[in-house]
């Protein structure tokens, strides 16, 4: 019996995604190339093109893998306690953003989306929108359960929750930690509670 081709393919895929994350953090998206990814991953370019149509597609799969997310599928906790569920999500967001390797990767992508609208739209479609929509849906469940005022715009509430976290991360205006995430949540929830 010969080597397992699926295992070999999975190893190659993981090596490509890891190399992509490392390279984009090191050289930025503009200087990232399929050739560079292939070389760093120890695979041929044709292996990458068999699975992805562009370097942006490889990059977003690398980001999705870091965030343990399948494209378009985000599961938020629903314990019945909205505050506990949102606290878990916000703390997880902070932990992901401040992890050094992920921080470099996210900063490289954030810099790129300032000038490349195609990459920005792809980021929103594949990563950001599914996360925001899942969080908004969890808030709507909180509305139906009477934990959130019925007049609340769930999409705006999500922006109020995550906006300060991303602002602090992006501009490095202060400590980004669980205490900050908890403070943001506590303040936003005051405005969301039933009147």
From TrEMBL:
Keywords for the protein's UniProt record, in alphabetical order: DNA-binding, Transcription, Transcription regulation
DNA-binding region: 33-52
Residues annotated as domain HTH tetR-type: 10-70
Gene3D superfamilies, per database record: Homeodomain-like (1.10.10.60), Tetracycline Repressor, domain 2 (1.10.357.10)
Keyword Transcription: yes
UniProt entry tagged with the keyword Transcription regulation: yes
Database matches in SUPFAM superfamilies: Homeodomain-like (SSF46689), Tetracyclin repressor-like, C-terminal domain (SSF48498)
Protein name as annotated: TetR/AcrR family transcriptional regulator
The species this protein was found in: Paeniglutamicibacter terrestris
